[in-house]
Each structure stands twice: as structure tokens, then as C-alpha cells.
Amino acid sequence: MSAINTILKELLEASHLQGVEALLGWDQETYMPEGAGAARSEQISYITGLMHAKLVGEPLTTALEELINLDTGELRIMTLNDRETRQVKEIWRDYRQEAALPAKFVTDLAKHASVSQQAWVRARKDNDFKFFEPFLEKMVQMQKEKAGYLAKGETAYDALLDQFEPEMTSAKVAQLFKELRTRLVPLVQEVQDVKHRVNGSILTKNYDIDKQWDFGMSLLKSIGFDLKKGRQDRSAHPFTTSTHPSDVRTTTRLRENDLKSALLSTLHEGGHALYEQGLPIEEYGNPLGQSISLGIHESQSRMWENLVGLSPSFWRFAYPKLQMKFPDQLRNTDQKQFYSAINRVRPSMIRVEADEATYNLHIMLRFEIEKMLINDDFPVADLPQLWKDKMEEYVGVRPKNDSEGVLQDVHWSFGAFGYFPTYTLGNLYSVQFFNHYKEQVAGSEELFARGDFSALLKWLRENIHSKGRGRKAEELLLEITGQALSAEPFMDYLEEKYRLIYGLS
Amino acid sequence: MSAINTILKELLEASHLQGVEALLGWDQETYMPEGAGAARSEQISYITGLMHAKLVGEPLTTALEELINLDTGELRIMTLNDRETRQVKEIWRDYRQEAALPAKFVTDLAKHASVSQQAWVRARKDNDFKFFEPFLEKMVQMQKEKAGYLAKGETAYDALLDQFEPEMTSAKVAQLFKELRTRLVPLVQEVQDVKHRVNGSILTKNYDIDKQWDFGMSLLKSIGFDLKKGRQDRSAHPFTTSTHPSDVRTTTRLRENDLKSALLSTLHEGGHALYEQGLPIEEYGNPLGQSISLGIHESQSRMWENLVGLSPSFWRFAYPKLQMKFPDQLRNTDQKQFYSAINRVRPSMIRVEADEATYNLHIMLRFEIEKMLINDDFPVADLPQLWKDKMEEYVGVRPKNDSEGVLQDVHWSFGAFGYFPTYTLGNLYSVQFFNHYKEQVAGSEELFARGDFSALLKWLRENIHSKGRGRKAEELLLEITGQALSAEPFMDYLEEKYRLIYGLS
Predict the structure, then answer these.
(1) ipTM, 2 dp
(2) CATH (domain of B223)
(3) Which of B17, B27, B43 comes nearest A16 by C-beta?
(4) pLDDT by residue (tens digit) across A466-503?
(5) What is the rounded CA–CA span in Å between residue B230 and residue B271?
(6) Is there a single domain that holds both residue A364 and residue A219?
(7) pTM, whole model, 2 decimals?
(8) Is B20 close to A24, i.e. CB distance below 8 A?
(9) In this complex, do A233 and B34 lie within 8 Å of one another by their Cβ atoms?
(10) Do A133 and A261 lie in a common domain?
(11) Which of A13, A21, A269, A276 is catalytic?
(12) Cα separation of A352 and A130, whole Å?
């Protein structure tokens, strides 16, 4: 069957380019000298152009056309087995998406994304939205243009969302957010009424950066991150990337007066990395070797960060070690107090440092604003004001400046509109998966308390990681748990958790 | 003139790929997880293939043919100015070299170079030549094949040498080495007879790695390395690479009981880096924006390492700082003693740690062995024995094992046959350039003694770096100094230096 071989050869070459692009991006955020930004943008743009040319090129197009009707997605060959069918369907989905975009648009966007990301770094540092505004303005225009090319879903925003979470719609996200909000807002309010019951000041003492790093590395090893096939570095904004399944890289950021941030971001990125390291290597270079969606990716990162890393049993294992690392700071704090402190609910400015409850309020705000920008032509110049007002309305706090306001996240700078909802979807998926895992594997808490996370990792490897792509996110959820996606299990989890921590009725 | 624009566009794209390949290589030697080696070899090979396809592709070939006869190098256009003529001639030279190689050979060689380099790392660590032997055997075969394609010069070895040092021949190298040897061997002997006069033990005390790193970084800043457009990292084997003139990277290696090695290798790589950072940015992407030859490159690294870094005036500046960094170790050693110690001549096993005199004996040995391998089919399996015998004959010491013998250098593993002579050529060039600089710029020693190296850097920028490529190495030498390449100035320098240090008559 030579058509599929041709396709796989072309896709493998595109994967080489993707790996190279990942390294260029990783390096830009970690070690690249500051003066090299312009050259790097050119390099990334050029590689992206080569990748696009490969993915919509004549060899792949002709071969794919032999197997499937490029317009309708109807298979022309009836002898494919189940795996092959899924493979060809996913290749076709990617092809349609890529072929919808003009080559020049692809390279222009890649270049602008790199340039604009560098502009954002500077704007955030200098608290200067005006400097960033033209870059963002151009990016929003390009995203609208992209949505026009993709032309999928009811609204422009749906087309963008679909890139990150295939088959998800903004109507469905809005419905889930509505369910979530109904229970979340009263819960946050209830906790706020008794907020004095938890004191978080222990987390903002002075904690040596190098010791934080060492502790984070030991956690990555504990949860099963394979350091022969990956590494951790520092960057201004934590992320995970993969140049190949044998080379998965996370980053973290460390601050002396913040113990929680690096610790949880290390586990978060570690969760992403475990997924990437667990993808089926035998499928490398075709869609079946990739992750399902960003929602599922976030279900992995948020699971390790929150359902593991903010659980009592995790701290039974980790707290004595942390105390040994920081004896002076933690001497007078017992495990229960520490557990409460690190789980404290407090409306705050920065999403990535939010607790599990208010986190989702940040996402709802992003979701609303993104729709206004993409669907309703909301003016970019008015964003700072809108951000402050919405923060007050949704989260209950008002940013003092734009660096802790509209400039706080990197995503918009590189064009990730439609990405934010996947964070909350990840939270919902993670609880549904984790509940099912706990039903299937007895004694999970005891294992965690001994620092043994291998049963969970094994379960995730078998049920999620090794499956790669080839099913939709909700199909995977149904397959594993028998349930549809819902906000209720997540809210049940949160209410129970905070009931215990805050002594709610 | 659309032909030249087409060519420059294609070459610029090839330069993007070259920059990307440099980053892949840099990362392989610095931060890449060990399990990613196989994937990295594939990526490098793929990018090399794209670069080759670009450099011999139809657009470039057709356009170049408009300007120049591809077989004879005769210009077809008579209206080119001097700069354009040089540019087209250099483009043609590169084109001929690239077009002589079959595409499959290029990608196979790139892959084998990456694989074989990784094998060498392991073999050297384990002192296991047998493990490395099949990789080297294959590499030697591929180099012979390459020489056959290039078919330039009298012997196969000449074709390989010409890649690194255009227009240089092994006959000419042999003649230079003969001149050198005539004065060098007696000098080394004379020094050996009074070797007790210099004690080098101060250099092998215990020196904290981090402090060595800090001191090296301060030296890089002192000599003018622009850290906004470059960086230094650690690797098993020091090297310099450039992803773009705005991103030039050096590495160093540090050992606790060796003060000299990291210090001098930092200056050595710094010299390479200054050249790369000083290349004419307006010519980026075409040959005029590149370095002239490896001999000229080595003239820059060896100048900063030896003529600056091993000079009395340099240590008038640097030694008080070094003493402050390592007060316990250096308290009882004065500047003059230290200067003698770091300049001690002692026949030793490892080229990169050799003094200025015996260094060239190592190169002569490599040159002889390389010619035997490439021209005379000397069997790879017999190399360890040959190496030991030749070391005894040339340098006067016999390696105890292969790690400090035939496995000591990385070059052969990635196929750099014909490269070694450029180290000695660099030594010769460096002294001729430096003598001329000192004639032109008065008070150089006083400036060095104050830590001011800007006059030297300015001179190098104007006379060498900013000229890029477009003339041969010896043309540049003649242009600057009015002299032909010769071993005599280098030997004059060495004899004078050791006369003072060792009190020779």
C-alpha cells in the first residue's frame, strides 16, 4: 500500500521539522541571548513554512486523495482496519486544517508570533500595554483571518477553539461554565466568609532558590519523569515542549518568597511531560502518536498538580522531606497546617498562581474577553479597562496595573486564542479520570503517602498516554469512565475538599 | 539584476537552515538528554539534506549559470564591481563543492557524523577503542568517498584539507611543518634540559569550579565578547558555534584540579567568538559574511589564548584578580612565578592542554596519521598502536591507554579529516598578524596590563573580522602584513619567550 507509505514518509519529515521548531522555541525561552530575537523569528518562520509546504505538498495530497475524499472525508478504500481508519481520518483532519491556510499567512503568522512574544516579554516587564498594543492588534487581526480560512463551527471563535480541542464548541463550553459557576461562586463566597481559618503566610517566607530547584527535581523523579529522555530548565514562564518523545522538556520559574508557585508549576509541567513521554513511540510521526487535545493534556498536568500535588496523602509523603530541606522556615508548621496553607482559597490577580477554585473564574473571564475580541470586534486598545472591570466582576479583585492585569499571560502574544477554555476542560476531565482511577486501583492514598506514584502513572499510561490520538477527547472519557463530560464531579470534589479544610457545613 | 537576487534568497534560506543545524549541534553537546541521541541524528541529517537540496537546487543553479560558467568559473557578466566579483566567485566555489556530493551521501554522512560522535563520547569514557572502531572505519571510508567526489588537489587528503583551508595543499603544509620542526625540536629539547627551572604544580591545586566559571566569564567580558549576542555554557569538549552573528555560543569545560585548562580554553573559544561576532552583518547569508578559513579562525582563537592570554602583560592585569578569587591557593605565588608556571613546556598526552611549543608536535602527528589513513589505506584497527608509537617519536611520551591516546579528540568522530593542520596554520598566522598589530598600535602591552583589549579588538575587527570572506587566507595575510606565510616569526616568538622564561642562552 504505497499511498500510506508516501504519506507516512512526508509526515515523518514534517515531524523532524516540528521537533526542530520545538527546539528553536525552547531555546528562545531559555538560553537564547537577548540580541538574537530577530534572527530567531526568521528561523522559526522559515521552518514553519517548510513544515506547511510538506503538509500540503503534492506528494502527500496525491497520496491522501487515493485513500479519502479530501472534501467529504469519505474513505475510498474499504479494506482498512480500525487503526488504519482512525489514522487516515486524523491525517485528513490535519490536512484540511493546514490546507485551508495560505502559505504566506502561515509564515507571516509564525514570524509575528515570535516577534510579538518577545514584545510581550518587554511590555510585561515595563508594565507598558501601549508598547504591546500594536503587536496584539495585529495578532487579533491575524487570528480573525485564520478563523476565516478555517471556517469551522458557528462563530469565528469556534474555529479557533477547534484547533486546540477538536469538536468542542463555544456553546458547549459556555454551558459547562454556566454549570460550574452556579456552584463555584457560592463556594468561593462561603470560603471567603471564613477565610481567617487558613493562614498562608508560611508560603511566602524566604526559600532559597537552589533548594527549591532541588526539591522540584526530586518531585519530578518521584512522579516518574524520565530524565534520560527529558530535562527541566528555568524560564520566565513555565512550559513543556517536546522535540521528540525521547526529548521532552519542562521549565519552571523560581522566586525566593514564593514556595508554592515553583512547586506546583513543576508538578503541572511534569504532568504534561509524562503524557508526552508516554505517547506510543511506534506511532511517532503520524497523528496516532500525538496527544488527543489540549483539554486532555491539561487533564494530565492539572491532575498531577492538583489531584496529586494538593492532596493530603501527597503531603504525608512530601512534607517531611520539604521540612528537612527548609528546617528553619517550616519547623513550627505541622503537616496539616501546611496542607491547609497550600490549599488556601484567595481571589488573586494571576491565574497561574490561583487556587483550584478561583482558577476557573480566571478562565471564564478569558473566554468572555476572547469571544468579544474575535467575534465582536472589541477594540484592543480598550482591553486594559475591560480586564480590570471583568476581574472585579468575576474574581472580586482589581489589578493595580497591566502587568498583573491584561499582560499577565503569554498566550495571546503568540496567538493562542481559543486555548484558555482547555484549562478548565482539563480540570473537569482530570477529576472524572481520577475518580475512575481511584475506583479501579485500591489504596491509592496509601501509595501516594509512601511516595509511590507508579500505579497512577501505569494507569494513565495504559488508559490515556499509550492511546495517542485517534479518538476525540469526549470519546476517550466515555471509553474510560462511561461518563459524559460534566462540571459536577469537579464541583463535588472541590466542595468536599474545602468543607474539610475550611470546616464548612 | 534578478539572478543575483534569486541566488541571495536561496542562500539566505540555506543560512536559516545552517543556523538551525548549529543549534541542534550545540544542544546535542550541552543540554540534550542522553536518550535523545538517535532522534537528534535524524533531525540533523534531515536539515543537512534540506540545506544541500537548497544549495544545489534548480533556482540557484539556473541563476548562477547566468553569471558564471559553472565548469570553469569564468564570469559571464563583465559589469560586476570588485565586491560582486568576489561574491560570485565564492558562491561558485561553494556550489562546486556542494554539487560534487550526491544528496544521499550528504545526509548519510551527516547522520553518521552525529551517531559516530555519540559513540566516540562513550568509547572515550570507557577507554574502549574497539567499540568506536567500526564507526571510525565507516567514517574513514566516507571521507575517502568524499575526497573522490571533491577530486581537488594532488591527493585525496588535499581535497579534504581544501574544505577547511581553501587553496592550501598538503605539500605546502608539509614544507611549513618541516621548517617548524627544524627549530622546534631543538627548542623543546633545550627547555627539557632545564625543565626544573619552572614549577607548574600551582596550577593543579584545588580550584572551585564555580569560581573558575566566574573568572572565565569576567575574562570573556574583558576581551569584548558581547553577551547580548552570545553566551557560554559547559560541554565535554569546548567549542564555538554560531546560529547567527547575533547568537554566537562558546563552551568550556572545568576541572577542579586544573586551573589552566578552562582558563585558556575560555580565551581560545572567546577568540573564535569575537571573529564570528565581528563578521559583516550586512553580508549575512552569503559567503562574504563568513569567515575566510579555519586557519584564519584559529589565528583568532590562538591569538587570544596564547599571544594575549599567555603574555606577561595580560597577567599583570589578570593575576591580581585571580589571586583575589583564589587567595588560599595563590597567596604564596607571585605574578612572575605564575606566569612561568602557566607557560611551562612539558611534553604531554593531550593536545588541547599542550603548551605553545609541543602543541605543534601533536598536530604534526595528526597530519601524518591522517594522510596514512586517507591516502595510504592504513588500517583503522592498527591506529592505537600507531598512535602510541608516533607519540613517543614526535612528542616523547607514550600514552598509557587509548582515552588519552587515539581517542582524545572529537574531530575524527564527526569526520573532520584535514582539519588539524589548520591549528598550526592558525599559530603561524596569529604571530604574523600580532607582530604587525604591535607595530601599528603603540603601547599594546600597557593597555593589556590595564585590562584594556579594545585596541586589539578594534584592529582585528577592521583588518580581519569585518572583511568576511572573499579573499584567500594568504591574500589576507599579504594584504595586512606584506608577508607570506612562514614558520619563522612563530619560532622567533617562541624562542624569545622561552629564552626569558627558562633563561636559555
Answers:
(1) 0.95
(2) 1.10.1370.30
(3) B43
(4) 999 989 999 999 999 999 999 999 999 999 999 999 99
(5) 13
(6) yes
(7) 0.95
(8) yes
(9) no
(10) no
(11) A269
(12) 24
